[in-house]
Amino acid sequence: MRIEDLNWMDVEGYLKHDDRLILVIGACEQHGHLSLLSDVKIPLALADAASQQTDVLVAPTVNFGCSPYFLAYPGTLSLRLSTLMDVTEDIIRSAFGQGFKRILVLNGHGGNNGLKMRLGELANQLSGLKIQWYAWWLSHSVEAVALRHDLKPSHANWLEAFPFTIVADLPEGEKLQPTVPSDILDAETTRQVYGDGVFGGLYQAPPEIMQEMFDACLADILQMLKFE
Amino acid sequence: MRIEDLNWMDVEGYLKHDDRLILVIGACEQHGHLSLLSDVKIPLALADAASQQTDVLVAPTVNFGCSPYFLAYPGTLSLRLSTLMDVTEDIIRSAFGQGFKRILVLNGHGGNNGLKMRLGELANQLSGLKIQWYAWWLSHSVEAVALRHDLKPSHANWLEAFPFTIVADLPEGEKLQPTVPSDILDAETTRQVYGDGVFGGLYQAPPEIMQEMFDACLADILQMLKFE
Amino acid sequence: MRIEDLNWMDVEGYLKHDDRLILVIGACEQHGHLSLLSDVKIPLALADAASQQTDVLVAPTVNFGCSPYFLAYPGTLSLRLSTLMDVTEDIIRSAFGQGFKRILVLNGHGGNNGLKMRLGELANQLSGLKIQWYAWWLSHSVEAVALRHDLKPSHANWLEAFPFTIVADLPEGEKLQPTVPSDILDAETTRQVYGDGVFGGLYQAPPEIMQEMFDACLADILQMLKFE
Amino acid sequence: MRIEDLNWMDVEGYLKHDDRLILVIGACEQHGHLSLLSDVKIPLALADAASQQTDVLVAPTVNFGCSPYFLAYPGTLSLRLSTLMDVTEDIIRSAFGQGFKRILVLNGHGGNNGLKMRLGELANQLSGLKIQWYAWWLSHSVEAVALRHDLKPSHANWLEAFPFTIVADLPEGEKLQPTVPSDILDAETTRQVYGDGVFGGLYQAPPEIMQEMFDACLADILQMLKFE
Amino acid sequence: MRIEDLNWMDVEGYLKHDDRLILVIGACEQHGHLSLLSDVKIPLALADAASQQTDVLVAPTVNFGCSPYFLAYPGTLSLRLSTLMDVTEDIIRSAFGQGFKRILVLNGHGGNNGLKMRLGELANQLSGLKIQWYAWWLSHSVEAVALRHDLKPSHANWLEAFPFTIVADLPEGEKLQPTVPSDILDAETTRQVYGDGVFGGLYQAPPEIMQEMFDACLADILQMLKFE
Amino acid sequence: MRIEDLNWMDVEGYLKHDDRLILVIGACEQHGHLSLLSDVKIPLALADAASQQTDVLVAPTVNFGCSPYFLAYPGTLSLRLSTLMDVTEDIIRSAFGQGFKRILVLNGHGGNNGLKMRLGELANQLSGLKIQWYAWWLSHSVEAVALRHDLKPSHANWLEAFPFTIVADLPEGEKLQPTVPSDILDAETTRQVYGDGVFGGLYQAPPEIMQEMFDACLADILQMLKFE
Fold first, then answer.
1. Residue A204 is inside which H or E element, if any?
2. In chain E, alpha helices (H)
3. CA distances (Å), C61 to each of B150, E42, F61, in order?
């Protein structure tokens, strides 16, 4: 159940018996051969699946995140971290003021991590607000699936190659992990280093592994939605 | 052709022969009986249609706009204008740096109007950038269609009741235009004044009128995409 | 009665029986052959006239507004919209804290329109504050006068040519409306398009029409000052 | 010659032979029995006098400054320092972009002093810009006049009691300097400490002393306008 | 060699043959029984040691970081992330403008991690700047030492109990890892959860292990200072 | 007693019987032949001495201030004033929330003066907070010592040449006061004007005068710490 499919009377009705909200925050950035919006599509798919089982509302997605290092890859549209923090604060304050007290942020992008600090600042200001943060690819669940199948999860490799993020034929086989300088890279250097944008490893994994991983993340989310 | 359906190589290819981008900026706010995301859905539908005819790229949508006056309607998620200006500046700077020189902003929401001032500031800073701004419901085209059919366009009435924004049965008939105080309303007062959120007029119009209006707006956009 | 002609004891006395304040926000920008401060002078003249009849206090003027597009015309001194919003918020918070509860903003400049969004944000925060916004040249009153005399109101044409804004001999006759590109113009292009800065139409109107228009706007303001 | 009495063509003509500008930055704050706008009126009178002798242009005044400590005195309208810095930066950038290279800031208010830091930041960014800063009441000239007549200059006492700042009968005689706590005072405490708002000393001085002081300051300004 | 022990001529001399700078960014926050400034003291000790071997300059420390979740522990003095990003940007721009081209940021505090995003934004703006980021406790070196001795590194436990961070007798033995809710905690809840502020594990480790860990981190830093 | 030598339990204990805090705010900027951190070292030495006699807590130092005009002297690391205001606000809010109600700011640097305005803004917001501000070199005490010994205090001359700020041999004798343009100088010009960075006068004074001055300032601080 997405907010976009409801009108305000529906949301008012919802708030009479529930106070939870799922907020997907992603990025519009290069994902190698995959969709530029992969970091939105994956957590949104998880949100939709979780919502189907729990009826928890899903807010419209924040489609842009912090990707200054990928700006030399066309199609990457990046926010300053300060901007993203303001966006998220405004959304959460809006929702909180209407009675949403438990918010699960499904973050789809590593560069958004600094956002958690603003959420912590908000937690000190909005008494009674509970915020959960889930970054699916960092979960123990994903780690376990990857280990089980001897796969190495990495940006834009098999890890993110879901049916709904694939927008072109994927290369066969494996990409060698590039040698990455240890300094904080500017966009031009990042592109020189990463070439096609994949951080290395297999380009794709069998569908059943992708499903297994998806299901494991979904289980995490269902658990988190209990806000225990 | 939406960026979300492409990878960065596709966008790089695109930029070799075109430098245009459509950016939809909407709002997540009460629309009476219609979808809370109507202000995104309508310009996005127009963008998709225009893209189909021109192959111009469509960026991911900015799903939130400025709606402080509607915050007492649950589901309204509003940005401060300063936040929205930063979001838009960051996106445009990202795109401009990659070679997008002509950007058509399809604005879906009246409260976002102040944004044009930031765009003007950017126009002074980014030499060679061309920005068009289109607010479909303020167009002569919509005015003409409304006049032709003796309809009065207003927030959340028939004007915005497209098949893809209708999420519930719409009331029959017409709403009397409420008496609106002339001062700048806070959210609570706004809700008292507007009740169901519609600003008055017919709740719906025949599908062929909606199509006529859509087509007229589309024609405007196709014209603007020439950037003449 | 302007604040500049009073000391604080006077204002304290005033607040014992009234809580209204008129705040003029203008611009310092090219007005063709007219004064660069026309957008302050006109609403201030209205404010003074209204104050004479009602004894409502007039705050010092905000002499700068948002005019990035006119910066290639010497003498235009423009604020970023974010700056203007902060200025206005600070003034209103100051006044509200002292007991001014009803504030009429007389805006003199179209580029300041985005400011209304910040006022809406403030209305949500300052309980008991009432803000009116009046942009004289957009009023039905001005429209009616213009229609009655078959005149077309436009930036820097007869519409703003009051005795107190005229600083040089005005051209005779009429300026053809220039062909204006539809995109958001940078300052250089704006100057190329508009030449002498007038947006077209007659350079001046007979004094009695100007007075008629002034009186009509004044009547509007007197009505608004009732804060009904 | 004030910008408000000119149109843009006049300013363009001016810039062909001169690149100086006087910018008055004041405050709207309690001045005891004197005008709430004394901090604008005094430097503006000086600016007008200097302009009469030199033909240097005078920009519209910034009518608001930083006076958080006086907010408990009705009529005080105060900006945050961050706001005032932004206002001044925007004005100076506008003017600099049009060819004003030498700007004399006539500051009328002690609380605005922090502004100089932003001016220093700007001096590093805008190559070729020269900014002078003059705070008349801190000048050696004023000190000398005060010493000569055995007067002690202080906020809102005789020092600022010019014919054009007097808006009410002034008390006879002298106010004892109040005992002032050494800490940074909030607005309520400030008012308790200062009572009528005067910082002590004689309420007025003979007109010829006021003139002597004015002339001395004017001479300073004329010297500074040489930008040597 | 710390900047505080030099004058500007010394630094000018240094810049003739080197362009590296070490910048320590820490936090002032609860560290259980350890010094509130542990997050500064540890990276500073490493910086000093590295400087002794390489003569690379050490800038004054940024003594405050982002710790909103620890604000209920007295002595924690926390910056908003936006503030910390501005501080760091200002320092780096200052240094870069003088010829420092390679900057190693020794971060001492996990809550500062979002700062990397601003550094990435700067890397795109300041051509020729190289920034390294080192968070000692997340290094493979520390992980290896901990594994070798079967110790679990955690906030304020043995991991940070260096001779120079110990300011009180440390408890004997081990603290059970508290059960931590998965949501983003406000400060009050954080204190309830963590009690004495230690995240669990042994309170101290033998000095030789601490030295081993210190040496391993120092080796990392010496390697990074090569900026290869 | 510095916070860095305590853990949070110590601070909690302290707050049971005292609510005072000393906050040193300095600068990292050229001081001629003296330490680049002189503006921190001097107030910190005073803070330590005062703390020894009163047991009042000393917060970690803010090591950076506003010195845009000195940026052409290597080693000067300057914050924008807006940044410094945010840093100080964040620290004071943190401390105030934990029970520190009386804060003495020991400012070490003239360029930080604008900060007082933010402190005044905070005083209006944080009810019950008392803030003292002490700029040692502007004190009557220093003036008296200087007069007594016929010395002229100035930036980086004898005034700041304490044993703990001397990092190199100081020149003998006296520097002529350079001729300083009256405008707000950019960094390059400042360096041309001031050469070695000293503002003129004797390079050093006898140790007993330095001690006399130190003691006089210390006495001031001890008096201020009574918060009478």
1. none
2. 8-15, 38-54, 81-98, 115-125, 140-148, 187-194, 207-224
3. 44, 55, 42
Rounded Cα distance between F46 and F218, Å, is 6
User: Residue E103: which region, alpha, beta or left (left: phi > 0; alpha: psi -120 to 50)?
Assistant: beta
Which backbone phi and psi does D31 adopt, to 5 degrees?
-130, 50
Residue D208 neighbours by CB distance under 10 Å? 9
Tracing tokens 């004894």 back to the chain, one arrives at C55
- Rounded distance, CA F113 to CA C213, Å? 50
DSSP string, B88-126: HHHHHHHHHHHT--EEEEEE--GGGTTHHHHHHHHHHHS
The chains found to touch E (3+ Cβ pairs under 8 angstroms) are A, F
**Is the pTM higher than 0.90?**
yes
pLDDT over 90 (residue A228): no
Residue D28 confidence (pLDDT) above 90 = yes
3-state secondary structure of E220: helix
Report CA D169 to chain centroid distance, whole Å: 23
Provide the percentage of residues in chain C whose pLDDT is more than 90.
98
Find tokens 């915020």 and name the residue: A131
Mean pLDDT, chain D, as a whole number? 97
For chain A, give the percent of residues with pLDDT over 90: 98
DSSP secondary structure, E66-126, as one string:
--GGGTTSTT-B---HHHHHHHHHHHHHHHHHHT--EEEEEE--GGGTTHHHHHHHHHHHS
Dump pLDDT digits (tens) for C132-176.
999 999 999 999 999 999 999 999 999 999 999 999 999 999 999
Phi, psi of C107 (to 5 degrees): -85, 135
Where do the DSSP E strands lie in F173-222? 174-175, 201-202
CB B87 within 8 A of CB B79: yes
In C, minimum Cα distance to B103 occurs at: C183
Cα separation of B84 and B211, whole Å? 31
Put simply, whether C165 touches D (Cβ < 8 Å) is no
Amino acid identity, residue D196? D
Separation in Å, CA D176 to CA D50, D157, D173, D188 = 35, 11, 10, 20
User: Torsion angle, CA of C41/C43/C48/C49, rounded to 10 degrees?
Assistant: 120
Closest residue in A to B196 (Cα) is A9
* Rounded Cα distance, A37 and B6, in Å: 8
How many residues comprise chain B? Answer: 228
F130-135/C102-107 β-pairing: unpaired
Residue C150, min C-alpha distance to chain D (Å): 27
What is the predicted ipTM?
0.97
Residue B109 near residue B31, CB atoms below 8 Å: no
Q: With left for phi above 0 and alpha for psi between -120 and 50, is residue D20 left, alpha or beta?
A: beta
Residues 58-97 of chain E with CB under 8 A from chain F are 59-64, 71-80, 82-83, 86-87, 90-91, 94-95, 97
Tokens for F182? 């009256």
Q: Nearest-CA neighbor of A102 among A132, A78, A77?
A: A132
| 3-state SS assignment for residue B131 | strand
**Separation CA E47–CA E20 (nearest Å):** 12
Report residue D162 as tokens.
Answer: 């010019």
Do residues D50 and D225 touch, judged by C-beta distance below 8 A?
Answer: yes
Whole-angstrom distance, CA of residue E114 vs CA of residue E99: 26
The pLDDT value given to residue C65: 98
Chain F residues with beta carbon closer than 8 angstroms to that of D187? 124
What H or E segment, with its residue span, contains residue D105?
strand D102-107
Tell me the residue type at E159: L
Residue F39, Cβ density class (10 Å: 0-12 exposed, 13-18 middle, ≥19 buried): buried
pLDDT of residue F182: 86
